[in-house]
Design brief:
Helices cover about 80% and strands about 0% of the residues. The chain is mainly α.
Length: about 200
């Protein structure tokens, strides 16, 4: 528990506008970094007066758009065969990718058209991958940027409100906050391990 508190204090101390943008850019690529561990905590710091919550949302959204553009351009220029080959590779499995996940995102994009880059930003399991089928389909870049920025912005506003609210009720939950965060972190690590094992079994 002491180690967790040390790491948590270090994380919070280094959470600023640039790190929020960087982490959200990573979250919007194919790497398994949930936005739920970025924006709410930055908003919590904003509620303390260390950051500005509006800038947290803006930098988080710009970061998300940047990561989405990376996926978009990689998919657009690499093409479908290489994207699926990467998803099925050992490196792809490390990032919890699979042919099924890419296909699911692509099917979602086909069903909903360009608006899926807006709606998909609010859908778990689709949010960080929806830019891949957009790139494969060579979606108009202006539309992609607009819909992605809007969808990511709304999602970040929701997360920022949650972080702000946690600060407001901190006195009620503070005695248990460390245990709650530790439990959530443990659940996320277990989830990553289980998903990695499942992807490994599918390839055997």
């Amino acid at each position: 528990m002491e180690l967790f508190h040390t790491l948590f204090d270090w994380y919070m101390a280094n959470l600023n506008y640039l790190t929020v943008a960087l982490l959200m850019a990573i979250e919007s690529t194919f790497m398994p970094l949930p936005s739920e561990v970025v924006v709410p905590f930055a908003a919590y710091k904003a509620a303390q007066g260390d950051l500005n919550v509006f800038l947290v949302v803006i930098f988080g959204t710009v970061g998300a758009l940047t990561g989405s553009l990376i996926n978009y351009f990689l998919s657009k220029y690499l093409g479908r065969p290489l994207v699926y080959k990467f998803a099925e590779s050992k490196i792809g499995r490390v990032f919890l990718l699979s042919r099924e996940k890419i296909q699911h995102a692509e099917d979602y994009f086909v069903r909903n058209g360009k608006s899926s880059t807006f709606i998909g930003r609010l859908v778990p399991g689709i949010r960080h991958l929806i830019s891949i089928p957009a790139g494969l389909a060579k979606m108009n870049l202006r539309d992609f940027i607009l819909f992605t920025f809007m969808g990511a912005g709304i999602w970040n506003i929701i997360l920022a409100i949650i972080g702000y609210y946690l600060y407001e009720i901190r006195e009620q939950i503070f005695p248990y906050l460390g245990h709650i965060l530790l439990a959530l972190g443990a659940v996320f690590v277990i989830y990553l391990i289980i998903k990695a094992k499942k992807n490994g079994k599918k390839k055997q």
